[in-house]
Amino acid sequence: MLARTKSSQIDKSGPVESAPPVLEILSAEKCFADGTRALAPIDLTVAAGEFVTLIGPSGCGKSTLLKLIANLLEPTDGRILWWRAGHDKLGSPGRRIAFVFQDPTLMPWAHVEANIRLPLDLAGVSKQESRQRVAEALSRVGLQGFERHYPRQLSGGMRMRVSIARGLVTEPNLILMDEPFGALDEITRNRLDADLLGLWWERKLTALFVTHSIYEAVFLSTRVVVISARPGRIFNVMTIDELQPRDAGFRDSARFAAYCRQLSAWLAEASLPQRAP
Amino acid sequence: MRPLAQSEAAMTITAPLLVGVAMVLVWEIACRVFHVPVFLFPKPSDIGLTLASEWPSLLRALGMTLRIAFQAFATAVVIGTLIAFVFVQSRAIERSFFPYAVLLQVTPIVAIAPLIIILVKNTQVALTLCATVVALFPIISNTTLGLRSVDPGLASLFRMNRAGRLQTLWRLRIPSALPYFFGGLRISSGLALIGAVVAEFVAGTGGRSSGLAYEILQAGFALDIPRMFAAMLLITLAGVSWFTLMVGLSKLALGGWHESEAGAES
């Protein structure tokens, strides 16, 4: 119970930095047509430049929350507010979100360059500009020279890099990632985590990331939001106030282990079946 | 690995070829040893001689059959694809009309052909219609399936990027459907030829002459068995080359990306 009250305090106070919010989730909840209550009312504010990670047991509604934000699902109640970049004004137009799925979700018939260019093509960006932006995105994820390769010719890690490049190419206000590296082996995953963190820092991205891995959450995030299951609700929030950019040394530090230990304990508690009040 | 791959490719051509040559040789020898009369079962050499002497008329007949089959195939592809596009617009339309497409498929062409040939005055048109009926279903069912088989993740991606209906169709649905569509083409090409020949048979028994089937029928009446075999050989060869053409076409379109056509490299 103590943990719960603490979390609500942190939520109300918002992010630690004074950066303007990108997104505000105001008691958004989701019930599905079959009566499943996927999300209890959730309040969460994501500020510009934050790296927020959602972690929780399977079926706790993390992915549902991401889909609500991406407008792939409608909230049953509550609101999701977008702050227009540059102005402290609310407004929904002008928001740019990128979604990186669990799977690379690439078009198998299109080569790497066309896959990355897709969001620009759909938005009607000029050929010249899109070529330049695709080239930039490719070099950011370290895939120069693979423009003409088809997805099936790439390894799992490289496909994920293509997927991330496609997310970056629109220069999104917010990048949503739903367990993007879950299917990869640990070495590849660690390398992609490090590269992602570098990208986030360099490009001043704002990211909302879902994972099952405690280590990944601690390594990447500025804030970790622990979600408990059935219905999904915010169980607790951990702020990871560490120097940026983080390097592999952080993984070996005692502080890293302490964060992991605490998060692991919270996660275990959040996974317990909830008693009816 | 290259030499192995090359020898494998050579194997796929030479091995069946050797089997074919061996079978023809056994056939020839058996006919000679047992003195089988030509009007019962001709030797391969008899068939070859017939082909050599009568090729102008046989080839003309083959041309007629192929023209009907090709017209039917083209019509089936156009109509079948259009119907598939209509079907994917709404489940209600598909549910209402799909049973009739199935009806078209399960009714034997031999049963409908006489009716069509009686109803349609022009023999060419009647035969094309019969063959179209046979070739239509695989195109409809495969293309409908293909247009529906869109990766749900990619569909969300298109939705999130606010893609229009036309953009989604052109950039997502049609490419996703291509492998299924080409599968339909392969089945349909063979069926168009079979449909054409069957329809010609039916028309031929009614005295309306056309194509290779009519040649076979006439040769049968005249007990000219080598000519029957020669006509059959031509139909078979035409069918095989057409199928090969379709395989090549599908490889050309899908070779770069689809698992079914992509080689074992990488």
What does this structure look like?
The complex is a heterodimer of chains A (277) and B (266). Chain A has 277 residues and is of the alpha/beta class. Chain A has 2 domains: 193 residues, Rossmann fold; 63 residues, no CATH class. Chain A has 9 helices and 9 strands. The radius of gyration of chain A is 19 Å and the shape is globular. Chain B is mostly helical and 266 residues long. Chain B has 2 domains: 35 residues; 213 residues, Orthogonal Bundle (MetI-like fold). Chain B has 9 helices and no strands. The N and C termini of chain B lie close together (12 Å). Classes of the chains: A alpha/beta (277), B mainly alpha (266). Chains A and B meet through α3 of A and α6 and α7 of B.
Describe what is shown at a glance.
Chain A is an alpha/beta fold. Chain A has nine helices and nine strands. In chain A, 39% of the residues lie in helices and 22% in strands.
The major beta sheet of chain B can be summarized as: none
Radius of gyration of chain A: 19 Å
Beta-strand percent range of chain A:
15-25%
Second-tier CATH architecture of the largest domain in chain A: 3-Layer(aba) Sandwich
What is the CATH level 1 assignment of the largest domain in chain B?
Mainly Alpha
As residue ranges, the low-confidence spans of chain B are none
Topology of this protein?
The complex is a heterodimer of chains A (277) and B (266).
Chain A: H1 2-13, E1 21-31, E2 37-47, E3 51-55, H2 62-69, E4 77-82, E5 97-100, H3 112-123, H4 127-140, H5 156-168, E6 174-178, H6 186-203, E7 207-211, H7 214-220, E8 223-228, E9 233-239, H8 248-252, H9 254-271
Parallel strand pairs in A: 3-7, 3-8, 5-6, 6-7
Antiparallel strand pairs in A: 1-2, 1-4, 8-9
Helix pairs in contact in A: 3-4, 3-5, 4-5, 7-9
Chain B: H1 2-33, H2 44-89, H3 91-106, H4 109-119, H5 123-148, H6 152-160, H7 165-205, H8 211-221, H9 225-254
Helix pairs in contact in B: 2-3, 2-5, 2-7, 2-8, 2-9, 3-5, 4-5, 4-7, 5-7, 7-8, 7-9, 8-9
